[in-house]
Amino acid sequence: MRNLNIYKILCISLLAFYACDDEQMLNLPEANHRVIVTSEANVENNINIGGHIDFGDISSGVASRTWTFPENVSSIFGSDKNTSGENTVKGFFNEVGVHNVTLNQVFKGDVYRNEDSSMPSGLKELDTTIVVTVLAAVKAQITGNYLNDDGSLGAPISISDAALNEVTASKKVRFSYTTIGAPEVFNWTFGTSGVDPTTYGGTNTEVDIQYKSLGNYDLKFIASRLRPFGGDTIFLKDLIKVIPSTEPVSLDAVKANEGKIDLEFSRDMDPDSFDVSTFVISLENGGTTIPTSIVSTEIKAGENNIITITLNEVIYNNDTVKVSYTPGTLRTTDQVNATVFKDKPLEFNLTNILKGSNFDYSFENSTDVNWPLAWGSAGIWNINTTQAQDGNSSAYVELPASADGFTWVQHVSNGAQKKVSFKAGKTYEIGAWVYLLDNGNSTGFAPDVRIYWKSTGDYDWNAPAVAILSDDMPTGTWVYQKAFINFGADGDYETIIRGWNNKNPNNVKFYIDNLTIAEVTIRP
How far is CA 34 from the centre of its chain? Predict the structure, then answer.
């Protein structure tokens, strides 16, 4: 028993000794670091008018501090002065604009400017300016104008409840907005059906709306921001009244729809006027004609200007489909007969996997540096705004005359080549829009330009490729060139655009835009 008590005493003594030693070890000189925080730092210190920001000085080694707020536009909570020596202060701002809050700090010794600084500043006193942006309440205004058939701006419409501005079926109105208060999100609602588009959520200040169905239409516009929160909503009841037209109805598009065909007209069609005998559908695949017949027709739900045709054959992405119409009974709901059209090609709705990726498929966000000449004769590659299939920019390419070898470029950013992920067992449509300026007046030889996709390693000229120039390509117009490609293995693939012009005595000049990669289904 006595031995046990002695053991306890020894343990307690040892613990006391080490505790005292730790306390001595932890009694270190305090480092002087400047660290300043605000409650709205993650939104760049933007606040609503009348709002507040909390400012905090959590620096170490501060002997004294002075916060100074701009006079007449701000106030400090709990104080009738515009200065404070507290480590935390709450500041209110009542005037729109950009305002400076300053902090003077005197430290006990040489101070590190920031928490992660590796060297002291050589100073004991530091001044800091914090910029505060005070935003006005969000306020929006909208205007509208009739859009003429040539795309020019027509007369303004009345922006008010129950205005019932008359719009002829199939015509367009251009709406635009102005705002104050720096909103970041904009949402338009034009209707649930009968208009194109029914909604729009982009940041463009102008949007063109086509009214296709008879009736009255409301409009809602919301401009908002999340931080600091604010918004304005405009709702107009019965703004537009769509009236019948006596003008011809046009076929605006022929589109694929889950193996079927959608005929998209410029305005609503009478569902009882469709006569299958007046339509001819041609379907080819690989040069082989596939017999077809119309099984059924119907108005597409919620889109009365679209007629959906179901064939006895499912349509695949590698099919070539054309639609022709001989005038008959087909008419609009306002009793205007459809006119003849012949061999209208079917368009496929593709989901471009490059959209939303870091690969600049449309040349809108890269420069010449991102597409360097990697090997071969000195070709020209320029990102330009002279021609664009879509957006503002495209790439201008010029292959030298009699180029002995190949000229190619690759998409590079920050020293690394951009890659695209492909899956084995899937088929991809890979294409590009090309605007041929000059093929060099070559005879019997078409310059060879291809987009290659390869995995890492040596360049393989047998890798999957898309030929983007052809013998019969017209000049002075955008042409979509494509190929259907299967990849043998999952992986990340690089792109190379290779040009060959060594048998041509003249330069070849063209633009390229909007590279497309989409997963597709082809005919078995």
Answer: 40
pLDDT band with cut points at 50, 70 and 90 for residue 499: confident
User: Residue holding tokens 């300053």?
Assistant: 102
The residue type of 152 is S
Residues 43-88 pLDDT 10s: 899 999 999 999 999 999 999 999 999 999 999 999 999 999 999 9
Q: Residue 20's pLDDT band (boundaries 50, 70, 90)?
A: very low
Instruction: Respond yes or no on whether the N-terminal peptide bond of residue 197 is cis (omega within 30° of 0).
Output: yes
Q: Which helix (H) or strand (E) holds 21?
A: helix 2-26
Q: Examine the pLDDT at 187 and tell me if it is beyond 70.
A: yes
Burial of 134 (0-12, 13-18, 19+ CB in 10 A): buried
Residue 503 gets the label, from left (phi > 0), alpha (psi -120 to 50) or beta, of alpha
Q: What is the mean pLDDT of residues 208-212?
A: 94
Q: What 8-state DSSP symbol labels residue 400?
A: P
Rounded Cα distance between 433 and 468, Å, is 8
pLDDT surpasses 50 at 392: yes
Residue in 294, 310, 296 with CA at minimum distance from that of residue 258: 310
| Diameter over CA atoms, the chain | 118
Three-state secondary-structure class, residue 8: helix
CA 338 to CA 88: how far, in whole Å?
74
Cβ atoms of 262 and 256 within 8 Å: the answer is: yes
- Number of other CB atoms surrounding residue 346 within 10 Å: 20
Which residues lie closer than 8 Å to 172 by C-beta, 6 or more apart?
Answer: 146, 147, 208, 209, 210, 211
pLDDT band at 394 (very low <50, low <70, confident <90, very high): very high
CA 337 to chain centre: 40
Residue 338 gets which letter from DSSP? B
Q: Which residues contact 282 (CB under 8 A, 6 or more apart)?
A: 289, 292, 321, 322, 324, 343
Neighbours of 5 (CB within 10 A): 9
